[in-house]
Amino acid sequence: MLSGLMAICDPASVTCKEQIAAETGLNASYVGKILRLGVLSPDFVEGVISGSRGAASVLTGLSSKAPLDWSIQGRETF
Fold it and tell me: According to the model, what pLDDT value does residue 6 have?
């Protein structure tokens, strides 16, 4: 989904999730949730896919503001 949003919207001219929502016909809240997934570290994503991260960690990580520092994502539940 994220790659689809990037293909539709020129990253250099997008200023807010509402603009992306208007251009794609999606709900702005949904766009915000999808964009937040882009800051997750590859290790966090791999842990989700492999099941090595606990369910509570995954739910907390996906519903909160993830730290941008990937090393923090790798060692803490945020």
Answer: 58
Q: What angle do CA 77, 49, 16 make, to 5 degrees?
A: 70
Could you report the per-residue pLDDT of 21-72, keeping only the tens digit for each? Answer: 998 899 999 988 888 778 888 887 888 788 887 666 666 656 567 777 888 8
Instruction: State the Cα–Cα distance between residues 43 and 46, nearest whole angstrom.
Output: 5
Indicate whether 34 and 1 sit together in one domain: yes
| CB contact set of 72 (below 8 Å; sequence gap of 6+) | 78
Q: Are residues 45 and 67 in the same domain?
A: yes
Q: Which two tokens stand for residue 40?
A: 């997750």
* Range(s) of the domain holding residue 57: 40-78
Number of domains in the chain: 2
